[in-house]
Specification:
The chain is α/β, with parallel strands linked by helices. The chain is built from 15 helices and five strands.
């Protein structure tokens, strides 16, 4: 949220994301300099028309909203996922109602979504910014959409999640790391990555910031525990839908991955859509409630765990300060900028010249893809 947001906007945002009253008060005090009692907060919520119990809702409009969510990647989520998504959009409805509507609208999907128990290794961490886990995701790479992410080990907050032209180019990954360091106000005590060469520059920059070669650790990908566990959730909740979608385009002959023109056109039309989609999933994950389990993990919302560790038994002030001159030096002297792409410039030129709108859904993306390819091949 921007620093200039009004008190009402901030309270509405925190309420919509599902934070408890105590968490909202703590966040207002810690990050916005606003102190109020819980009585005042409740009075504000009443003035804004915000409540969580006995909420009036139109089941017909809720049904249509859920139907719209099911016509896309959200169909991969269960009723808790849909319920939280609706809540983030300001639609308050009992979870039992969402569960019943989901069974009505998607009976086959409901049966297919079954929880599987896993036996996990114990995980030890002191608090937020003790350890960041970084990893790449290649399941969408055959279609030209590799993804890279970083997760805070203690809170399980996703710090970044990007669709990138290549998650194997070290300068892309280093840029994401530097952006996160600048945004969070420092770097973690430790950084864990897999053995990929794309992590080398980021690892070197982190060791430079910490002045400690041992502050970064390479581990085999399956042992990067936090990242690998989150990718499993990511595939169940999102990428299975996109994988099937792009495979359908390939099988129908609409997309040929061997064609550079078609691959670049697919990127132009769908990369922004995919980025927006996974940003929503990141926000969804960071504000959803992780239930207490028999494993040695802390329950709570990742955003709350990360920003308010003192309320959840975590250590505070673990983030390591990075001087501005060191941050500037890394950006200017260590990280290279991506080169121009003639295909992307051409598609942007056609879009602007022909007054074509950038897509807002996968259907509009597919329509733009076919239009741009027709222009490129036939000149029409």
């Amino acid at each position: 949220m921007a620093d200039g947001d009004s008190e009402e906007v901030v309270i509405r945002d925190y309420f919509k994301k599902g934070f408890t009253y105590d968490e909202i008060l703590a966040l207002l005090d810690k990050y916005h300099g606003v102190r109020m009692s819980i009585t005042t907060l409740k009075r504000r919520l009443k003035e804004y028309g915000l409540k969580r119990r006995n909420v009036d809702y139109d089941v017909v409009s809720v049904r249509e909203k859920i139907r719209g969510l099911l016509d896309g990647p959200d169909c991969m989520g269960g009723y808790r996922h849909i319920w939280h998504t609706l809540k983030m959009q300001g639609i308050c409805v009992p979870r039992s109602t969402v569960e019943a509507l989901l069974r009505e609208l998607d009976p086959e999907g409901t049966e297919e979504r079954r929880a599987h128990r896993l036996r996990r290794r114990a995980y030890r961490n002191n608090g937020p910014n003790d350890t960041w886990h970084c990893d790449g995701y290649d399941k969408l790479k055959p279609f030209g959409f590799p993804i890279h992410a970083c997760i805070d080990g203690w809170s399980r907050k996703v710090l970044w999640l990007y669709v990138t032209r290549s998650n194997n180019w070290p300068h892309n990954i280093a840029t994401y790391y530097l952006d996160a360091v600048e945004h969070q106000g420092g770097c973690p005590q430790k950084l864990i990555t897999d053995l990929g060469t794309e992590n080398g520059l980021m690892a070197s920059i982190h060791s430079f910031f910490r002045d400690d070669l041992n502050s970064h650790r390479y581990v085999p990908s399956p042992r990067n525990q936090r990242s690998e566990a989150w990718w499993s959730y990511f595939r169940r909740s999102r990428t299975n839908w996109w994988i099937n979608f792009f495979k359908d385009l390939e099988h129908q002959g609409t997309f040929n991955p061997a064609s550079e023109l078609e691959s670049e056109c697919l990127w132009f039309c769908f990369a922004p859509l995919l980025q927006e989609d996974i940003e929503q999933l990141k926000e969804h994950w960071n504000t959803h409630y992780i239930r207490k389990s028999r494993h040695d993990t802390v329950s709570g919302r990742p955003d709350s765990l990360y920003h308010l560790p003192e309320m959840h038994g975590g250590a505070i002030n673990l983030i390591a300060h990075v001087p501005d001159d060191e941050l500037r030096y890394a950006r200017v002297h260590l990280v290279e900028q991506a080169e121009r792409n003639d295909y992307q410039e051409y598609f942007q030129y056609v879009t602007t010249t022909c007054d074509l709108k950038r897509p807002r859904s996968w259907r509009e993306g597919l329509e733009l893809y076919n239009t741009l390819l027709d222009c490129a091949v036939n000149g029409s």
